[in-house]
Structure formats: C-alpha cells, structure tokens
Design brief:
Layout: H1 9-21, H2 35-39, H3 55-72, H4 76-89, H5 98-103, H6 111-123, H7 129-140, H8 143-149, H9 156-169, H10 179-191, H11 199-209, H12 218-235, H13 244-247, H14 250-258, H15 265-280, H16 292-305, H17 317-329, H18 333-346, H19 349-361, H20 368-388, H21 397-409, H22 413-426, H23 431-442, H24 449-458, H25 465-474, H26 479-491, H27 496-504, H28 511-525, H29 531-539, H30 545-559, H31 568-573
Helix pairs in contact: 3-4, 3-29, 4-6, 4-30, 6-9, 7-8, 7-9, 7-10, 9-11, 10-11, 10-12, 12-14, 14-16, 15-16, 15-17, 16-18, 17-18, 18-20, 19-20, 20-22, 21-22, 22-24, 23-24, 24-26, 25-26, 26-28, 27-28, 28-30, 29-30
C-alpha cells in the first residue's frame, strides 16, 4: 500500500488522480511551441512527441503476441495479465473471439483466473449480447453461468467481479439492453443483508449500478430512477453497524447517478446532510448510521449533489455551511477531509473564500494538504468550464499566491507534495521556478519527489524534463518514484523517456521490482516505441513468469485506446476507505489491478 496511514492525501490521490492528471493528454501529437505559445508561458518545445501505436501494429503484432503468451502460459500471473491486456485493447484476435478466450477460464480451478475472466468480459468493451447474458448469469448465479463454469454454484468473488464487469458495460449498450442488467443488479440489493459472505457481491452491485449513464431518453430516465431508488432503499435499510461498510457505498453511487437536479436530489441532500450532523454531534441513536465510512461517503456525495455556493442566497447554502462545520468539527478526520474536497467540488465564491480561510487556520502538515487539493481541484474545474465555453480562464491570483506562500512555509514532505500538485492544477503563474527549486532539493525523496515532478507536468514546464529524466535514471531502487517520474514525463510528452526506460529493461540492476516499475512506466507513457521491446520481453522465456506478466501489463497500457484506465470510474464513484476485498486489498481488488 502507498502509506500506512490510509487517511493521508497521497492515498486519496492514487485513487483519484486519473481524471485530474489526464495522463493520456501527453500522447497527443505536439507541435513545437511558436512565439505566441512562448509568450503565454511555454518553456520550449520537445524535439519529439509521444505517439500511440498504429492500429495495424496493435492488430498484427501486439494482439497475436499476447494471445500466444496466453495460450502457452501455465502460470497464473502470465495468464491473468495477458487476459487483462487483451481486454484493455478490446480487439478480437484473428480467427478467435475474446469472449471465448475469457469464458474458457471460468472453469479454471484457480480462483483468480475465474474472477479475472469474468471482469475481462466487461473490460473488453465489446458488450455483445452473449457478453451481457453471461455476465448477468454470473452475477445472479444462474444456470447459464453454471454451464459455462462447469460447476453447480458460482463463488462470491467471481460473482462480484462479474458485477464490476457488467457496470463497465452499462454506459456502452443501448437503453433497451440495459433493462436485464439493471434488474439483475437491483435483485441482488433487494436480497442482500450485507453479511460477510455477501458483502463483496453487494458492493459490486452498488458500484455497477452507479455506472448507469444519465440517458435523457424516456427509457434511460426510467432505468436511472429504478437504479437510484434501489440504491436509496438499500441505504435506508436497518441492517446494523456491521453492514454499514457496505451501505456506505450507496451515497456516492446515488449522487453520481442523479446529480444536483434530479427529483430525488432534495431528498438525498437532506438525508446525507443529516448524517453529517449526526456524525458531528456523535448522535448514534437507533436509526442513525454510526459507521465512520457512512459519514465519509455522505460528505463526498454532497460534493456531487450541491449547486455552487456563491453567497447566502445560494440554494444549498445551509448544506454547504454544514459541510464547512464538518470540515472543522467532525470526529472522524477522514470525514473532515472529504468535506473539504466536496466544498472544492461544489465551487462558488463562498466556497472559495471558506477554503482560503480554512487554509490559514489549518494544521500545516495534516489538514492543509487536503484544503490545498480542494482549492486546486476547484480552480482546475473552473478552467475546464471556461475552455468548454471557449473562454480563456482567468488566473485566480489570490488562491495561487496563497498556495505559493504555503509551499514556501512548508516543512513536511506531505504538505510540499500537496502544494506542488495543487499549484499544477491551478496552472499557477510564476510557480514553475519554485517547483523546479523544490525538485532540486527533494527530487530523490520517495515521499515527495514524484509529486513535485507531477506538479511540474501539470504546469507543462517542459524545461524540467531533462532534470526529471536524470532523477528517473537514479530511481532504480525506488520503483514507486520511478513510476511517478515516468507519469510526469508522459504528461509532458517527453519521447526521450521512452528510450531511457527501454534501455532499463536490459539492465538487471535493481531486480524484479525495478523491471516491474519500468514496464509500468512504459505503459503509462503509451508510446509506440515501447511496443517492440515489450513484445520481446513477453516472448523471452529466460525471464521469470512474473516479469513477463508485467510486460503484458505494460502492453495493455500502451495499446489501450481509452483516455483513462478502465477502473478510474469506479475509483471516482466509491469510497476506497470502506474497502471490501474485491474493491481494494492492495493487490487483487479492482482498484489495484493495473
């Protein structure tokens, strides 16, 4: 795991970074900066650009190589990693179908292979009728699944992974084809009492329903109402404290479905805000939900349900005040932090002022990082909205200057790293020099160097790329730092990092952990020049099976046509603190799979 303290902002960032970092932007073809770009803050052009592999290369080189490795492998790691890589690419190999490759592993005696096969049917994005039918059957333990799996009962983990896979399909199929999956998932909630034996399937069903798109057609609206009411009914069940870790996943899933303007939004705003009031006063009466994870999720959900907090006449003024009080007074610190992030998500002048005031009063090492990230996310969202309207976003100088002052005063690596990323999210003018100085001072530290590099990448400080490449070369025995440097270089579109990482593959120094990190880093870069060395690595039988498995992981990342990882939507719509085994356990949950 990233950090022993699960309440640290670094832990949150690892799960939430994808929509904020948008790493695949670095794959776009980049033209040299012209004089106008330079005047707007550009720092020099890259000699080369990152380019995704061609469709021909993927179809004629990568997919056959992965299929060959899949069919020849006898070890779990290579089989499961090649399945996931093929699913990310989503293309049938010549003369075969992904559905058949994956479904044959449903009868495996290996539990991990069975659950990975079920999940991969969803990751593949093909969503054919036989895919949906099989996933539904696996979810509800139906006869079709028994025949495919050659067993009389589908185990709970495989059923859970089938639910997650089904959720990935819901946005991709026509509204009339969503009825059977939604009804199946709804039936799982209606039958569940969230006991320990059922909790993985129940959480997966909640997560999957939360992926239903906001379709404006009559059929789409009807299904969304069914899903939202089903989730709310399950959340309102009196199941006792032990089940509340499962119910805690409902508020964010509901909020993601309905947003601030649905017929249920007022009811949910009131109910979730009431939960925060109970948490703040330690009211644990017979009808309250005492589990801290419920309060955390309610605080997060209100960030999706509330309208901008501009002033005292804003429609959700009272609820935003409650979030602010929660940020200051909640007994559970994680609930405080999530409340601060929600104020940033809600936005508006009143929320901005409140967060700036909180940052001045907050503990520098513990609370300030969360408030900085809330402000950074707010300014980034405002900039995105401006660009959608074809308006050049204004710099929020007060926020940027406040973040710069906090960076200058910070002594804790946690605060320095958060300030770097927040400044990057704000695209803060004048912060590039400060972050390059911080990189010179702290770049080799695992607890902060990678975050500073990512901050520079968000600022598009291309002149920092050579220094980051130097640090990348020196991070041989610091795999996590190596991956973060690779991320930052990928965001910067730095093609020179491809050759640098590729050369590391042939170097045995640092052992397996380093090779795994290099392969992951290449996958993060997503450049066509990664393909040949990774295919060679996959086919090199003198390497350990685990090393070859990581080559497959990297190939799946390089050739994935999606702008973000397949599990990013689940990371954004679930409370990672209310973890069950199939969600995240540090190794084999859906949020852990590369």
């Amino acid at each position: 795991m990233i950090d022993a303290d699960l309440s640290s902002w670094e832990f949150w960032w690892e799960f939430q970074k994808d929509p904020l970092l948008r790493l695949r932007d670095g794959m776009e073809l980049r033209r040299a900066l012209n004089a106008t770009d330079a005047l707007l803050g550009g720092r020099g052009a890259l000699a080369r650009t990152l380019e995704p592999p061609s469709a021909t290369t993927v179809q004629t080189v990568v997919v056959p190589g992965l299929v060959k490795a899949f069919r020849e492998a006898t070890d779990r790691d290579t089989i499961s990693s090649t399945m996931v890589a093929l699913a990310k690419i989503g293309q049938d190999p010549a003369g075969a179908r992904l559905h058949d490759l994956f479904s044959q592993k449903l009868s495996s005696h290996d539990q991990e292979l069975r659950e990975t096969a079920a999940l991969c049917i969803g990751i593949s994005r093909q969503c054919r009728r036989e895919d949906i039918a099989l996933l539904v059957a696996l979810c509800v333990d139906a006869p079709l699944a028994h025949r495919e799996a050659a067993r009389t009962e589908i185990d709970q983990r495989t059923r859970a992974f089938a639910c997650y896979g089904l959720g990935l399909c819901l946005p991709r199929i026509e509204p009339h084809r969503r009825h059977a999956p939604v009804r199946a998932l709804q039936s799982l909630l209606e039958a569940s009492d969230a006991t320990s034996t059922q909790r993985n399937v129940t959480v997966a069903a909640i997560a999957a329903l939360g992926q239903l798109p906001r379709d404006t057609s009559a059929a789409g609206r009807s299904l969304l109402d069914i899903a939202a009411n089903s989730l709310l009914a399950f959340y309102d069940k009196e199941l006792g404290p032990g089940a509340q870790i499962v119910q805690a996943h409902c508020p964010i899933a509901i909020a993601n479905l309905i947003g601030p303007d649905h017929a249920l939004s007022d009811v949910c705003r009131s109910e979730f805000a009431g939960c925060l009031a109970a948490e703040r006063t330690s009211d644990s009466g017979p009808t309250s939900k005492a589990n801290d994870h419920v309060g955390q999720s309610c605080a997060s959900a209100l960030g999706l349900l509330c309208r901008p907090w501009e002033n005292e006449t804003s429609p959700d003024h009272d609820i935003c005040l409650r979030l602010l009080r929660t940020c200051r007074e909640a007994r559970d610190h994680q609930t405080r932090y999530f409340a601060a992030l929600s104020l940033g998500r809600i936005g508006g002048e009143k929320a901005r002022t409140a967060l700036l005031d909180e940052m001045r009063e907050a503990s520098r090492a513990i609370e300030q990082p969360w408030i900085m990230l809330a402000l950074g996310s707010m300014i980034a969202a405002r900039a995105d909205a401006s660009l959608v309207g074809l308006v050049t976003p204004d710099d929020d100088r007060e926020v940027c200057e406040s973040l710069l002052r906090t960076l200058d005063a910070a002594k804790s690596p946690h605060a320095i790293g958060a300030a770097a990323i927040a400044l990057g999210l704000c695209r803060a003018p004048g912060s590039g020099d400060r972050l390059r100085a911080a990189l010179s001072e702290y770049g080799d530290r695992e607890d902060v160097g990678g975050q500073i590099a990512i901050g520079l990448a968000l600022l598009e400080e291309r002149s920092a790329a050579p220094h980051i490449r130097e640090l990348l070369a020196d991070s041989v025995r610091k795999p996590q730092l190596l991956v973060r440097f690779a991320m930052s270089l990928g965001k910067l579109g730095d093609a020179e990092a491809v050759a640098q990482l590729t050369s590391m593959l042939t170097d045995a120094e640092g052992g397996l952990a380093r090779l795994s990190a290099v392969a992951s880093g290449l996958g993060q870069l997503g450049d066509r020049r990664c393909v040949d060395p990774l295919v060679q690595m996959l086919q090199n039988k003198t390497l350990t099976p685990l090393t070859r498995a990581f080559a497959a992981v990297a190939l799946g990342g390089v050739c994935d046509p999606e702008p973000m990882p397949w599990n990013a939507r689940y990371a954004a719509t679930l409370n990672y603190r209310a973890a069950v085994e199939t969600l995240t356990d540090g190794a084999s949950g859906i949020l852990d799979i590369l």
